[in-house]
Every structure is written in C-alpha cells, then in structure tokens.
Amino acid sequence: MTEDNAKLQKQVNDHNTKLQKQVDDLSEKMTEDNAKLQKQVDELSEKMSRMCEMQIEVMMKVTQMMTEVKQLKQMIPGQQLVRKSIIIAGGENKNSINSVEIFSWENKTWTLLNPMSTCRSRASAVTYQGEVIISAGTDGKKSTDTMETSSCDASVEWKISPVKLSELCRGHAAIMYKDSLILSGGIASKTSDKIYKISMVPPYSTKILATMPEPRYDHTMELFEDKLFIFGGCYEGAKDTVMMYNLVTKEWKMMTPLPFAVDEMATVLWQNNVIVLGGRNNFTGCKDTVVMYNLTTGESKYLPSMKHKRRGCAAVVTGGVLVVMGGEHVKSAEAFHFQEQVWEELPDMNEARKYASAVVKPN
To answer: TM spans, by residue (predicted)?
Structure first.
C-alpha cells in the first residue's frame, strides 16, 4: 500500500505540475494578448486623435474658404454695396472737445452736427435701436460715468442717458451684445481688468461679466460669433496680446499675439478678420501700419500702409470700404478699398481729433 500511495502521490504531483504549467502558459499568453490588445487600443486612440486633428484642420480650412468666397462675392464688379454716413464724436484737439461731425458719401463732405452736452475724449461709441451711444471718457480734467445718446439727424440734440457706468472711466472699449453694453478695461481709480455687462433696458442693471487675465487701457474689442476679442492696449507698456472670451462657455483663450505691441490704435471687424490700424508702441512713435488678423487661424497679414501715421485714431467699415479718421494733430481721413487694395484720401474733417469715437450712422 505504501508503494501504491507513493505512485499515486507522484501521479498527483506530476498532474499538478502539468496543470500549473498550463496555468502559467495561459497566464503568460493572456498577458501577451493583453499587451497586444493594449497596443492596438493605443494605436487606434492615436489614429482617432490624429483624425480629430485633421477634421478640425479641414473644418478651419473650409470655414476660411467659405469666408474667402463670401469676400470675393462682395468684390464682384457691378455689385455696389451701400455706404452709410459716418459719425465721429468728441476726442481731443489740445483740449477735450464735444463737437460731432457726419460724413456724407454722396457729397463727400463733413458737416458739423449738434455737439454733445459734455466734452468727451477716450470715450466709446456704439449704436443701439437707431441711436448713437457715447459712453464715459474724460473732459480733460476728470473722467465721467455718464452716457449720452442721439440719432445724429440734423438739429437733433444729444440727451443724457438714464444708464450709468459703475465707475468713472476712460480709455476703455465697448460693444453692444443683444440688449447690453459690454465694456472692458480702461482707467477708473486704477487700470481695470474687469469686463462689465450693462443692461440697456430698465432697471439698467450692471454686473461683472469676467475678469481679464491682466488689466489694460487704450485697447480695442470686437465681437465675433458670441466671442469677445481684445487686442493690445497698455499696462506698464504696450501689449501684443490677443485675448478671446467666449460669452457662451465663459472661458478665456489666449490667441496668437499680434506681430508687435501696440496701443492707441483703431480696429474694425471685417468678415472673420480684425483690421488693426496705426497706434503706438511703448509710449513712443506713431504708426501707419495696417494688419489684418484672422480670428479663425490667428494669422496676421500686412495690408498696404495708411497715407498718414495715426495714433488715437478712429475707424469704421461701411459698404466694403474701411475709413480711418483723425489721430494726434490730424484732421485727415482716408478710405481703404478692399477690392483694389489701395488707400484714397477723403476730405479733411472740420476739426483735428485724437481719441475720438466713430460709428456708422444707424439709420
């Protein structure tokens, strides 16, 4: 029985050894298979990531192509776009001024309108419900928190709005978004990093919409597809930054910077581009440069320079033509024709204007 038990034990041990080897082999194979599977998953994930990147790139190119097609359609000869009158208000000519002028394309003349009730330099201008709204600014001695409005028709007087800013301000930027005035930066008690949303309907509430990554003044701001794009400006020196704030997602994004630091410039929105005109850098100089910044790609392209160097100028786009006005000791105006890519001298304004505010007449 002892010998039989020994044989039986040996058989059991051999069987266990074989079984353990099979388990080890199976485990090793599973490990190898898992490694191969993980490698395949990683490769597939990488391919999907590349495909997503390619898809995004293709979508950006398609968007750019559609925009270019739209631009080309606007440049078709014989397709005359309507050019609306231009309003320019306030500014500085040695001292802050309250005069207002209108430019007529039909007569190619500047005509003085009724002046604002307050001298305003480094203010902002928007249009809303058929009226021009001039916000804040300085009279040369102190800043203001008031707004005034006018249809800018002949003989119509300016009136002080019941809407007020939350603090005295100058050197800010503003746009209209739905029924609210959105105001960024500027100099109040100190250089501001706030973006305010001011309701233009009763009870005219004001709230802080966002805080910029850094404060600034003498910058510009444009609205495109529910996004605020903030360009350049000054805070301890001129800035080359372009910041985007998404009004829907409430998120900031730092865009590709401008080719140079600049403040006291003018900007206009044209298609999916922002045109940056003139300005200065690091508290000195006066520029005649014109840069077209693509909001989709972040690319900058130089356009033909203006005929005059301008800082503290104002600009608008109407009827496919860009018009820039004024600047330091400058009362000239000039128009850039996108189709021909050339600048044309326009008649001088009645008064030289630096830090003026300009808009296309709303009606």
So the answer is: none
CB–CB of 36/282 below 8 Å? no
d(CA 137, CA 170): 4
Mean pLDDT of the chain: 91
Backbone angles phi, psi at 39, to 5 degrees: -65, -45
Mean pLDDT of 47-63: 76
Contacts of 328 (CB under 8 A, 6+ apart): 286, 310, 311, 312, 354
Residue in the block written with tokens 């600047």:
327
**pLDDT on residue 77:** 47
Q: Which amino acid is at 224?
A: F
- Residue 136 structure tokens: 């804040």
Contact 231, 276 (CB under 8 A): yes
Contact between 120 and 134 (Cβ < 8 Å): yes
In the chain, what is the straight-line distance between the N-terminal and C-terminal CA atoms, in Å? 116
Helix or strand run (H / E) with residue 28: helix 2-74
Mean pLDDT of 110-114: 98
Structure letter (DSSP) for residue 145: E
Q: What is the pLDDT of residues 133-182, one digit of tens each?
A: 999 999 999 999 999 999 999 999 999 999 999 999 999 999 999 999 99
At residue 345 the predicted structure's pLDDT band, cuts being 50, 70 and 90, is very high
Rounded Cα–Cα distance for residues 308 and 306 (Å):
5
- 208 phi, psi to nearest 5 deg: -80, 120
Q: Are 99 and 115 in contact (CB under 8 A)?
A: yes
Report whether the peptide linkage leading into residue 203 is cis, meaning its omega lies within 30 degrees of zero.
yes
pLDDT of res. 78:
43
State which H helix or E strand residue 199 sits in. strand 194-199
Of 190, 191, 280, the C-alpha closest to 238 is 280
Query: For residue 363, what pLDDT is reported?
Result: 83
* Bridge-based pairing state of the strands 242-246 and 357-360: unpaired
Tell which residue, 102, 103, 84, has the closest CA to residue 346: 103
The closest alpha carbon to 90, from 111, 116, 114, 109, belongs to 116
